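Hi F.,

I've been meaning to write this up properly since the lab meeting, where we talked about keeping a consistent format for the predictions we share between groups. The idea is simple: the sequence comes first, exactly as it goes in, then the structure tokens exactly as they come out, then a line or two of notes. No screenshots and no reformatting. I'm using this chain as the first example so we have something concrete to point to.
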Amino acid sequence: MQASSEPSTVSGEGASEGNERPRILVVDDERVIREILAEFLALEGFSVHTVEDGEKALTELRLHPYDLVITDLKMPKVSGLQLLERIEQERLGVLTVLMTGFGTVETAIEAMKKGAYDYLLKPFKVEEVIHVVERALYRQRLQAENIRLREALTIYKVSEAIALSHDIEHILDVVLHAALDEVKADVATLHLRDAASGAYQERVKVVTAGGTGPRGGLPTPAFPVLLDQFAQGVPILVHGAKASRFFTERAGAPSDLTSFVAVPLHVRGNLVGVLDVFSFTPGKKFDEGHRKMLSVLASRAASAIDNARLYVDLRASNDGLTRANQTLEDMFQQTVAGFAQALEESDLYTRGHSERVAVYSEVLARGLTLPDAEIRRIVQAGVMHDVGKIGVRYDMLNKPGKLTPEEVAVFRQHPEKGKRILEPVPCLHGLIDGCWCHHEWWDGGGYPRGLAGDRIPIVGRIVAIADAYDAMTSDRAYRRALPHEVAIGEIERCAGTQFDPELAQAFVRLIEAYRKDMRARGEDSLIPK
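Output, unedited:
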């Protein structure tokens, strides 16, 4: 049958505008098969692209991200099995389903050995195809969630490893190896800015064991160009020859460079260094998720390096002990802020939520005249209260409609997940109650444990009110923000059932005083309408 000379794309008409639909690439030399698959997969809400042979499929996969490839077995130029081999060799990171009219057990085994997720026998039924596609995409979502959680745990482990280290070389070694391992880079470098001269010095360069390095030597970053991009808030994530302008050599990027990411190390608003990762492996491109993970890692590295430098200076000073204690306190707070950043990078609608919950928690805690140390713990718990949502799917967090019972059950696991994330980090144990208990109800009707009354730790009761107030007065995917008066009315109505009645009464009084003070300082834009 005559093959189409141009690839085509079909999108489901019923999909919501702006939603990220799963992308499927259909590869078959028979136009009718491509058109049939594209049509009914598009009706199911998928974004479908078609090509007629394996060579064009490889080109398309190198240029654009896909969630799933459905490919024929028998094709000219590059067969389905050869396409599977190339996908695995180039680490293109896409699940593959093989179609064949010559179905045998041997064919299936061979396909699975070469990396296929599943196979379909021609002639196939529409229901069978949809079932296989949905099962494959579900597996991919689980893998993506595991990667997100693993990356978050990596940040925690790295923070634990460098938290009390005063050896800058050790800190750099831990951070660079973490960068290499987590994004599967071939080379990672870290340049630190000399405080006296302002020059950037390459302190460490690591090449993965058995990894690929540049043929012509590693290029030196053009720091003025990098700094200009950082100052504008423009991410540096580029591929191939487009990276040339970020290096000093006239030749630009090495000819074998596949992908490049650079992220800044900031301390109190000042740039102290740059972390770079390189891929020289064909087909291995970094993505936005990799860049965000490296940004959080760089944030932890910056604070640890700053603390190590301060410690060296403090040892020579007469008031070293006092300042060292303050340094450790600052380091702890920066650790908390770094973890909150990891969460809020994953969800548009929680951006700023943790910070506001911390502010409202502090308003209530100070109004109760709690000890300063307890207030600090409550504020930090407010920042970290939703860290367990790192393990919840992004599309579920931002679903515009009502959650299904199954989705509700998954969502309600986030306090327990938050507790499990914080437990391995000793310096964060004091924040567990705020994370674990902010969805418990005064009357025992909350979750995850159904605690009631004073059995709910006070930090959980305080954060619960602050969390509910900000959730009501902020935009969500499923509704617009509620007015301040409506939110306060709900807190009063739910006092004695959802909220501690005494704390709810105190919050209503204290939040009004806080709003009045903010208006007097001309900061009306920072308070809910």
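Notes:
The radius of gyration is 27 Å.
The chain has three domains: 8-145, 166-317, 347-529.

If this format works for you, I'll send the rest the same way.

G.
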